[in-house]
């Protein structure tokens, strides 16, 4: 039965990836939006301006959906079709690669058309920077950086944890990542309360971000880049970013695209100066399109790898070791 479950997980993840590629994010009744409402209700009941309260909030907000997912996985352990459909639905809901690439291409079209007002209006769909004073080069840079980072968050991360832990891994990762977006950012309200969520998100993304960077290096030829250059920039610049994970993805993307990222970022009243990543010039609208294409290629590679790993675990469990036979013969 364990073998059948793992095969169902692999097929379900593949179907979920196909659904995302065809339809993008669900238009209505998105489960992540429902989780956001649940987490908001928990926050209202548990909020206090200290880290202990934030840790309790994170435990409940992440633990509850993981327990539901684990119970669902257990209930479908002898129902491979149901298991496949549940995993497919969860994977579709957790992935955001198609919508991410689409938003990037919309930004490129608006920049190409010279419509800065609509390009600025588009940026909040991609990141939280203040777009009001940004020109075309900075809008392009913000988009490329967001696409690179979110390729890990919205694609590779859920697939990695699905390969590792099946349905609970997919659901748990999406819960952690959503909480980080809700309370993990720097603000007066969440400076302490959001610490646990932010640190858990950092931990959950340590491996996926580096897998994303490695796949970005391998996918560089798909956008006219060189894997050797992408690898060089990743290894040199990946640790310069204040985030332990975002810089890995952004540096690899900068190397693959042959551009330079980083600089001054404005988030409301907060200003951050990010180190430069890469050796080229600032990104142009063409590079925004290339970044979207790179994200799609990396996502496809991650989907194939995750399904192969999950199915491979089933084959390893099915392979007899022969130890028991030899032992019985000796007896």
Automatic annotation (TrEMBL):
Q: In which pathway does it act?
A: Cofactor biosynthesis; adenosylcobalamin biosynthesis
Could you tell me the superkingdom of the organism this chain comes from? Bacteria
Please report the record's description of how this protein sits within the membrane: Multi-pass membrane protein
Which controlled-vocabulary keywords does the entry list? Cell membrane, Cobalamin biosynthesis, Membrane, Transmembrane, Transmembrane helix
Annotated transmembrane regions = 53-75
Instruction: Name the coiled-coil region(s).
Output: none
Could you tell me where this protein is found in the cell?
A: Cell membrane
Q: Which PANTHER family match?
A: COBALAMIN BIOSYNTHESIS PROTEIN CBIB (PTHR34308)
The record, for HAMAP family, names:
CobD_CbiB (MF_00024)
Q: Record's family?
A: Belongs to the CobD/CbiB family.
Q: What does this protein do?
A: Converts cobyric acid to cobinamide by the addition of aminopropanol on the F carboxylic group.
Protein name stated in the entry: Cobalamin biosynthesis protein CobD
